[in-house]
Queue: 4 jobs
Job 1
Amino acid sequence: MIRRRNLLGAGLLGIGGAAASFGSPDHAANLAAPAISRNRRRLNMVTTWPKGLPGLGRAAERVAERILAMSEGLIEVKVYAAGELVPAFESFDAVANGSADMYHGAEYYWTAKSTAYPFFTAVPFGMTAQEIMGWIDFGGGQELWDELSAGFGIKPLQGANTGHQMGGWFRREINGLDDLVGLQMRIPGQGGDVLRALGGSAKSLPGGEIYQALQTGNIDATEWVGPWNDYSLGFYREAPYYYGPGFHEPGASLAVGINLKLWESLTAGEQALIKAACESVNHLSLGEFTYQNSVYLDLLVRKHGVQLRSFPDEVVARMAEASRDVRAASGRDGLEKRIYESFEEALNKMAGWAAVSDGPYYAARELGRKTGG
């Protein structure tokens, strides 16, 4: 493995120079010869997503496609769905130990590694998509994330965002807190901790295993993403009640994790190229999820008779109370405490802005729609 990485690392040395000359007056004359002599590099990316999954799975493929295009074919990334190279939840370890080069997944799957990881995907009653982008890119989140993941030999980057998620699919209606007692639900991360605090039982299952668990009765309910991705996995066939809003994931950020030794072997130009590819997919995915969720929500309700429900007020209030305790318990000391404190400080700042911007606007727009405005 060391020999392979040394050889492959040497093959990238010409990329930075080629990028620097691109667009210069001499570019046309210089392009042909270096392009012939430069070596190409092949990397592998493991994911936590089922094969062929739209949205999440497509985001991983887009990252690979953009790296290939932006490097002019010099860096090729082969994407493997969950289970093709390693099981979904072994993706982190595969990249950390160097048996895989990159992963695409959700950081809250790695809670056993650190209780701070969910803050970089989503936490209950936490940040929306725009807010988590704001914290990571401008509020110190990336630096803390880098510090956390470096301890495991990984360089993390944002690689997609689903936007607001739904609360989940339920076999029976939730009319009050008593209906959560004993409920067995697929819900990972801190959302699962909140459910446990309310008397339920939470399980963390990869996407490819959820439908069977729901079908066989091993779980009573499941959350996944939203109408678009949920439709593709067929949950509506087993659980007719679709609850929202998703208190547990108000704007789930997905990650690209890169083996740190591999990352440090790259030139600054190569690193910038990969960052740019991930950033473009991260922002593109948010618009795609927003639009496609609207299309598939209509399809689920109109064609398949899915029954939309909202959680009762007493359930929401208790979830919010439990969520504050769960978030605080995840950051009691050291780096995890610094991450928690940074997240909460940024959340409070941005929530103040949302209270006078997004929230009132959505309410006003809905009022206008109802009155024909």
Note: Residues 136 and 142 are 5 Å apart (CA to CA).
Job 2
Amino acid sequence: MRTSPPGPSGCRSSARPGATRRLAPVAGPVLAGTAAVLLLAGCGTQTAATAGARTSPEAACVVPGDPVHDAGPDAQDVRITSLTGGHAGCGGTAPDAPLRVGFTVANHGTTPMTYAITFTLFNDGGAWGTVQGEVADVAPGGTGRAVVDAGAQPRIDQVRVAKARSVPAAEAPAAVGPCPPSGVRLTATEESAAMGLRVRGLRLTNCSDRPYRLDGFPRVELFDEDHDAVTGVAIAQGSGGISTGTGFDDPVRALTLAPGQSATSGLLWRNTVTDGTPVNAPYARIYAKPGAAPVMVTPELDLGTTGKLGVGPWRKAT
């Protein structure tokens, strides 16, 4: 189901005309699962406005808007529950107080899920920047809660859900916190792009107290935004003919990672669109080696109509 864009908020911006728009540094997201639920700060004696609602000039509160049109199916389960801070316009806070976005996410599935929600902050009708919050291990039928600290901001007049993603809690990447039972952390790194060629890195770190051996390529399975398996895409070990000079066709070498050491691989594709329907695969399930526990990452693969994805060999990180 797609939602229509919200109406005007009726709020005014305090930003100077022509000023460079830049998102202030953002503190790390506050995590909350079903076992540790945060109490969300209220906005004085008021409640957050409903999606698309208008506020009176005197109140000048930040308005939570409907999700953007391509936020994903999970966005329908996200609700912004509070917006507080010095420039939220809800009264009583110091001018330099950070903007905080409280939200809930409901799990309507049958397995525990971990959610990553991206919010866009709007200033005077234009997108100012984004912040992200996570809610870990939400039980089936349960609701997770969290508050994102967006730092000091100019007058923000609307906050909307820009993207919502969810992965099975048992397969969620563990970038921080205790070492997973597998003994390794596996995460997707930043994407690089040039003239339609895309590369998304994978990084594996041995966080255990014993050596970890790799020999070959990670195994990759792709899923769409409804978590259905993506078919019709050839996943190749190496570049798969997508591009040369990328290092994806380098010889495979056996690796042994000592505790604390890392290895890297990557995903290679083009987003060319010709005849047919473009394929998007926001989710990828990664097996570091045969028998390894799977980890589901969100590389946001826009594969166009190419039907190809290359997977690089594991190489020891320098």
Note: Residues 1-168 form one domain.
Job 3
Amino acid sequence: MAAGHGQQAETGKAGGGDPVCMRIWGGLGNQMFQYAAGHALAKRLGVELLVDPLDLDYAHAAFGLDLFGLSPRIWQPDTGSLKARLLGALGRGEGKKRQKLWPGPSYFQKDFCHGDEVFSLTAGTYLAGYFQSEQFFADCRDEVRSLFSLDHVAATIDPARLALADAPTSVSLHVRRGDYAANAKTTATHGLLGAEHYMRAAGLMAQLVPDATWLVFSDDIAAADELTRDLPRRTLVEGQSREQDLHLMSRCAHHVIANSSFSWWGAWLGRNPDRHVIAPRKWFARDELRRVYVDELFPSGWILV
């Protein structure tokens, strides 16, 4: 069965082995990386993919796979078992500790965007991590693009905006704020890209795409307005849902992304085979970059500034 709107992704069951299970958590972009990696692993092993969505407390982290019409089977741990009762008594039967109820082996990704061990995992494994690299699903790239199609959303978007995005010189520019700005701990981890970064990226894109028309996306449109007010032919995209934003981003010809998995996907799902993508080299704040390897996050051909 083809994976599409309102359908369950078919991961293949030719091997007849035990399913693999992927922990799903974080914002929409994070969830997409996790699901893509899990889908690819299940397909390679010929088994079913289950998902284990953690409790998602933040508005930006609402369970998102249903936006794509995906309905993977959710793992339901056996809460009546002796092990479950013991863990519950110890306060370990909920949240991230729930994986202790998984009957098979577990794999926890050590690195942000790297993990050769994934390719030697066996059926029946529980996975948790970020998996933020296309290396984990490069062998089924076209399937992943199909899984994350939002073509059904186009009918809900202003036709004038669609026309802007479909122009051959359109550039999506994403400004990420939200908890990056509101939470001091999150700011210390991710940092905030300022006007200097965006003007440098925009200047480079203007050289690559003369007469660029800019579509500016953000979770803080006032901040995005301030950061991009000097751009010519600029449209601030307001009042849309996250799925509408993601679809409109993907229709743009070129992309300037933030240090955000959301706009990473907006660029990666882009339809223009000759698209230019400019991404921030400083994906994290300085201190975080000293300990986190990020090189494999960026697909070949993306420009880092």
Note: The longest helix spans residues 28-45.
Job 4
Amino acid sequence: MIRNNIQYQIPPEFDGCTADRFLRAQGFSRHLLIQTKYQENGLLLDGISIRSNQKLHAGQILRAAIPHIEPNENLVPVDLPFSIVYEDSDLIVLNKPAGMPVHPSHGHYDDTLSNALAYYYRQRGESFTARSVGRLDRDTSGLVLFSLHELSACILAEQMRNREIHREYRAICTGTLPEAGCIRAPIARAHDSTIERIVDDVRGEPAVTHFERLAVCNGFSLAAVRLETGRTHQIRVHMKHIGHPLPGDFLYHPDYSRIARQALHSYKLSFLHPITKQPMVFTAPIPEDMQALLSDDAHTG
């Protein structure tokens, strides 16, 4: 069940501080705190309604309501298959198949992961507003993180800004990659396209990609890839830039002889849980269409 309030026992180090100061330290943004305190019984201290400037004492129990946000009326619930890797009352981690967008957009109003989640929670009698934490391109498979309420969204967004959510990809590239490397090449929008990106030393924004070669087979390299920056199409553009584009990439290497989409997979996701603060680590196996590019005699690089 999606969380609608959160309860804290005040620790000794916050004895004498105000409720708003304490909640800000727990990850409430100023906007979220305003929404919370203006709800009926939004803040309860030992069961009694309080103002946000109320002083707290160690051992007291503070309960804060999490504001209910009405779901997007334009998000159509649709019964679509999807794979749940992990779920609790604060977040859900999914293994997205290739070909499924994360959010609705032009031409994709009812075939996205967000549509599927809206249906899933409606069947359980719960409202859902799509809040993905980071996105994947439509044809990139793998792990996607969604927050399930406003507090979780607030904390995870701050983790994203601080680069505290770590993602590792698996990419299959043409040719034999170096054993390891770091690509530092600024990325900009191509002049004649709304979606294509290029390396551009003049107009580009800084972009840094780290890779390690894991295997080589049949003219392809399997690589583990990590990003320091999050530019649109960064892995795809950088691998093309160094002469090792991803097969099946309709923008940067449209060779569909072995795979029908870019050979890129979000393999590993790690972060601190927004509420419990426990380390969370998830992996999703490389899908079959990418495995098929590498036969059993692939050798480690």
Note: DSSP finds six helices and 16 strands in the chain.
